[in-house]
């Protein structure tokens, strides 16, 4: 069962891998008793147990601490995806760069990005912590585990905090490589057949 310590450790890993900065971003895990989520205004790289808040499955704080302003985004994702037990929202440099440009990451430039993501779309912009932001973002997460948020950042979801971190880390690597290929004049894309073979491999069809 994921715990407070898991959130603290993931926060440190995000910071140490340049996937978060300052007091931006938030992390949560789903438990039997509710949702554990980072508090408003906390630095993910320097979390303590006091920086984590228990909320119920409607977003109400169950203790005298203020949860992240993005708590309703986490609540709605858990409602929509019963398989999800952990969520990371942060602002990595390269993913946020593509999000600011409203550019989807879908170029078939390496096998890993096809197998892990197929594509990483950009959800339309909405004010942070707004109901519109929740609606805009969640609809892209019905069949994906990583989505960029226009002019904002990115979100990764998984069955546990460690896997959510790995998805965010891998997505940031994909964004970084994509930008580098553009600086060098453009990548040589995988063929349609290559992509289909990788998708079939992903779904154990070959």
Describe this protein's structure:
The chain is an alpha+beta fold. The chain has a single domain, classed as Class II aldolase/adducin N-terminal domain (L-fuculose-1-phosphate Aldolase, 3-Layer(aba) Sandwich). The protein contains seven helices and seven strands, in the order αβββαβααβαββαα. The chain has a seven-stranded mixed beta sheet, sandwiched between helices. α2 runs parallel beside α5 and α3 packs across α6. The radius of gyration is 17 Å and the shape is globular. The N and C termini lie far apart (34 Å). The model has no long low-confidence stretch (mean pLDDT 94).
Précis, in short:
This protein is α+β, with helices and mostly antiparallel strands and 206 residues long.
Give the strand order, joined by hyphens, for the main sheet.
3-2-1-4-7-6-5
Strand content: 15-25%
Q: What is the C-alpha radius of gyration, as a whole number of Å?
A: 17 Å
What count of helical segments does DSSP give?
7
Mean pLDDT: 94
Please name the fourth-level CATH homologous superfamily: Class II aldolase/adducin N-terminal domain
Instruction: Please describe the biggest sheet, giving its number of strands, its sense, and whether it closes into a barrel.
Output: 7 strands, mixed
First-last Cα distance? 34 Å
Estimate nothing, just give the exact number of structural domains: 1
Indicate the CATH architecture: 3-Layer(aba) Sandwich
Low-confidence stretches: none
Estimated helix fraction: 25-40%
Q: What gross morphology would you assign?
A: globular
CATH level 3 topology: L-fuculose-1-phosphate Aldolase
Structural class computed from helices and strand pairing:
alpha+beta
Query: SSE order, as H and E?
Result: HEEEHEHHEHEEHH
**CATH class call:** Alpha Beta
Care to count the β-strands? Answer: 7
């Amino acid at each position: 069962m994921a715990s407070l310590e898991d959130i603290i450790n993931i926060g440190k890993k995000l910071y140490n891998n340049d996937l978060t900065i300052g007091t931006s971003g938030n992390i949560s895990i789903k438990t039997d008793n509710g949702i554990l989520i980072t508090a408003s205004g906390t630095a993910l790289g320097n979390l303590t147990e006091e920086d984590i808040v228990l909320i119920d499955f409607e977003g109400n704080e169950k203790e005298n601490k203020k949860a992240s302003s993005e708590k309703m985004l986490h609540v709605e994702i858990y409602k929509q995806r019963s398989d999800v037990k952990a969520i990371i929202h942060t602002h990595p440099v390269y993913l946020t760069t593509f999000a600011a440009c409203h550019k989807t990451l879908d170029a078939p430039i390496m096998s890993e990005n096809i197998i892990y993501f197929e594509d990483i779309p950009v959800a339309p912009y909405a004010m942070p912590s707004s109901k519109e932001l929740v609606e805009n973002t969640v609809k892209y997460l019905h069949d994906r585990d990583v989505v960029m948020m226009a002019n904002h950042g990115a979100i990764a979801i998984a069955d546990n905090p460690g896997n959510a971190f790995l998805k965010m880390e891998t997505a940031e690597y994909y964004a970084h490589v994509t930008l580098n290929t553009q600086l060098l004049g453009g990548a040589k894309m995988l063929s349609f057949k290559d992509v289909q073979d990788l998708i079939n491999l992903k779904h154990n069809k070959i």
